[in-house]
Amino acid sequence: xxxxxxxxxxxxxxxxxxxxxxxxxxxxxxxxxxxxxxxxxxxxxxxxxxxxxxxxxxxxxxxxxxxxxxxxxxxxxxxxxxxxxxxxxxxxxxxxxxxxxxx
Length: 103
Ligand code: FES
Prior knowledge:
Elements: E1 2-7, E2 13-18, H1 23-29, E3 49-51, H2 65-72, E4 81-83, E5 96-100
Parallel strand pairs: 1-5
Antiparallel strand pairs: 1-2, 3-4, 3-5
Bound molecules: FE2/S2 (inorganic) cluster (FES).
């Protein structure tokens, strides 16, 4: 099991445990506020927008052009933005804390 923490807009930190699947599915299944996953994970809604801390950036593959295009539609996109549906749970993420971008 891998522990993934999600910090929501209201400052709560929700600890979740996952084995496989995407970070969006993990957050959605644990009712993390601000992660809705409206498109089901096909990279067409951006309701799974998260920020990855600079020191954790290397733990993820670089964003695809489709992911970058989707993030361009968001008002609050930064260089640390990612779409959680495009990121898979893996062992290297154990104990990571991700910040949810939306309320
Ligand atoms: S769930 Fe829709 S873009 Fe991630």
